[in-house]
Design brief:
Layout lengths: L1 E3 L2 E5 L3 H13 L4 E6 L14 H9 L4 H7 L3 E3 L1 E5 L7 E5 L20 H10 L8 H5 L3 H6 L10 E3 L2 H11 L4 E4 L3 E6 L2 E7 L3 E3 L3 E4 L25 E7 L4 H4 L4 E6 L2 E7 L4 E7 L6 H12 L1 H4 L5 E4 L9 E2 L2 E3 L14 H16 L3 E3 H27 L7 H8 L4 H13 L16 H10 L11 H16 L10 E3 L9 E3 L11
Parallel strand pairs: 2-3, 2-12, 3-8, 5-14, 12-19
Antiparallel strand pairs: 1-20, 4-7, 5-6, 9-10, 10-11, 13-16, 13-17, 14-15, 15-16, 18-19, 21-22
Helix pairs in contact: 1-7, 1-11, 11-12
Bound molecules: flavin-adenine dinucleotide (FAD).
The site of flavin-adenine dinucleotide has 37 residues, from helix 1, strand 13 and helix 11.
Length: about 525
Amino acid sequence: MGQTTDSVVIVGAGSAGWLTALALDTFCPFLKIRLIRPSRGAAIGVGESTQPDFVELLQAARIDLRAFYETCEATMKCGIFYRDWNEVGKHYWHPFSDLSLGEQFGPANLSANYTVAHHYQQMILRRRGSHARYYKSVHSSYEPCVKNKQVAPEAAVAFHVDAHKITEFLQRHLTRVEVLEADDLDVQVEDGRIASIVLDGTRTISADLYVDCSGFARAIHKHVAAPDILPYEANVNRAVAAQVPYLDIEKEITPYTGAHAHEHGWTWSIPLRSRVGSGYVYHGDFCTADQAESNFREYWGAQRMRDVEVKHIAFDSASLRNPWVENVIAIGLSAGFVEPLEATGLNWTITSVQLLCQSLAARYYDRDTSAKYNFNILGYVYDVQDFIDAHYKLSERRDSEFWRYITAREYPERLAHRLAMYAVEMPTNRNRIKATPWAFSELSWLDILNGYNFRYEKVDVDPRLMEVSDALLEKIAAREPHGIHPLKCSPRPDARGPQILLDQQTGQPRVSNY
Ligand SMILES: Cc1cc2nc3c(=O)[nH]c(=O)nc-3n(C[C@H](O)[C@H](O)[C@H](O)COP(=O)(O)OP(=O)(O)OC[C@H]3O[C@@H](n4cnc5c(N)ncnc54)[C@H](O)[C@@H]3O)c2cc1C
């Protein structure tokens, strides 16, 4: 099987369908792109916390970031703030930071294998530091974001966005994409490949490649393969979600996504410009839908929630081992999902479609192309699964049946091996248990593991590196923390690179004052 590639049909008009169209339009301008949208049946409507790659894709597509920001009710996201995950009353911070931002100090990213974050963990062993002081000592975003709820310019690299408005905006922007409306798709299969799709019994279309973005329905992929699902035990599988009004936006808005752990699961809070996107995530074996809804309403307060409608969502943590089969590739929820924690859904879609664009650059694909794609995505999926599992496995919480089960249950051997290796060597770019592309950096692992008081053994480090690291930590400690109120900033119109903020009071780009 070899296929020249001039045309693509995307089925589904949720975030995955439109982001796939955006990336293909941007990176594969030679393609004829058609997108099938049902007249009924909405997109899932969640997926509002993004990662930096989302903004980078908008930038690559030359979208006016400020227009997007305003139209999509966006706010800046500097990271994720975790409450009560390890113990009730304790918190941890997972910011967007690669520590190379500290270059103004000198060689902050001393080597990819020993950053100031690694160094601070070694100081904990030498009783010169503590897990509680790690975030403040290592991340300049901690003080402004967590303590003052202000946007730290150096970490403001992603957005919170209104999920429905993203798709509306992209549809208006992507004028080259032909949109076909159809409710009944009759998929014609010949020799294990899609030959064509008949739309509403009237019009027949065909393409060189079909992208299944139909969400959990997996409407196209299922015609070419029985689902080969990666073995994975989900920690949570249901959510109650709602658009929660602010009582006092000035006080309540945060520059981060909140992830607050509870007895039966956790609540996400995604602050937008006019409301908070929120949901209570739980496992159906430990909590009923009624209980979850009542806990969720209680969390936000009966008064505030009086007129708020909630949506109950059952989600599937099933990921396809081979999302690309013959001339069909599943992208988005149809390819896989773990859970809302760490906002990996849109990142997964963007990672997939970027890899697809690279695969199609030669305007030709065959079984080797799809095999390579599937192999690479597998590395990404394992990384997502391990990273999310670590949040549950390592917790000290035992205060409910849910936490007792989730902390005692079996996790993949891969994760156990990874944690044992990290304890001895620390997470570095040498000991990744992952193929490229991967999902989370070594620094992300350090940030999360610190939240669980994870202890590393002493590692051999050149004493000069230790000295430079000490000096860097002193400089971080001496800095003046600064931030901007979340409602008083927006992206620079010419934004490029990680620093995308504009202070609306001064009209000047704000950069880190490390
Ligand atoms: C509870 C929850 C919270 C989440 N939170 C986040 C988050 O904060 N950040 C993040 O990055 N991700 C998050 N995600 C994931 C995120 O929602 C998805 O990655 C994203 O919305 C993409 O969804 P999709 O387009 O694949 O599917 P959908 O939004 O379900 O869209 C599917 C589309 O296919 C159409 N369709 C369905 N069946 C057919 C058919 N038979 N024929 C034709 N068309 C069809 C539908 O009408 C729709 O247009 C979350 C997911 C869940 C479940």
